[in-house]
Design brief:
Largest sheet: none
Number of domains: 1
Structural class: mainly alpha
Order of helices and strands: HHH
Helix content: over 70%
Number of helices: 3
Strand content: under 5%
Oligomer: single chain
Number of strands: 0
Distance between the termini: 18 Å
Length: 87
Amino acid sequence: MPNPELDWIAEKACEMLVDKVKDGPLTDHDVKLAFEIFAQPRLKKLYGGRDERELGEAVDYVMNKLRGYAEQLNLSHWAGRKINFPK
């Protein structure tokens, strides 16, 4: 479900992770925090009044993007120390 609006939301939420990774490897808690602070309010606004299934798919899409970004950031900043994120 490629969606430019969802990609933008994920990219902007990722900016929080870019700053955080400098302090240490990112965890799933960091990903959830970035989602809750930046992405969740925008998704609720974007999908307000729509089918709950659509909102759920959008949440899953953005969370998967954020987890992917976090893994890439961890690898580029903390090579050799693997962090596993639940799928």
